[in-house]
Amino acid sequence: MTTRGLDELLGNTDRDPGCDAGMDLIDEYCDLVARGDPIPARFSEFVTHIANCVTCREDTASLLAAIRDHDETTPR
Fold first, then answer.
1. 45-55: per-residue pLDDT in tens?
2. Cα distance between the two ends of the chain
3. Nearest-CA neighbor of 71 among 30, 34, 25?
């Protein structure tokens, strides 16, 4: 098993605020990631949560894919 796979299986022991708190940040987090901007420290609990929660991790990946697809298909 890869280190990433093991991390996804075991999760992270840092403070995890849960799904509801993460949904307040997912849009802004995905915008930052899609632009390649540094992730501010205030997102650390959200990052912990998506490391621990398969559903939220998949939601985040889906939103990132939609943002990137939109950016690629939108004329500038």
1. 999 899 889 99
2. 43
3. 34
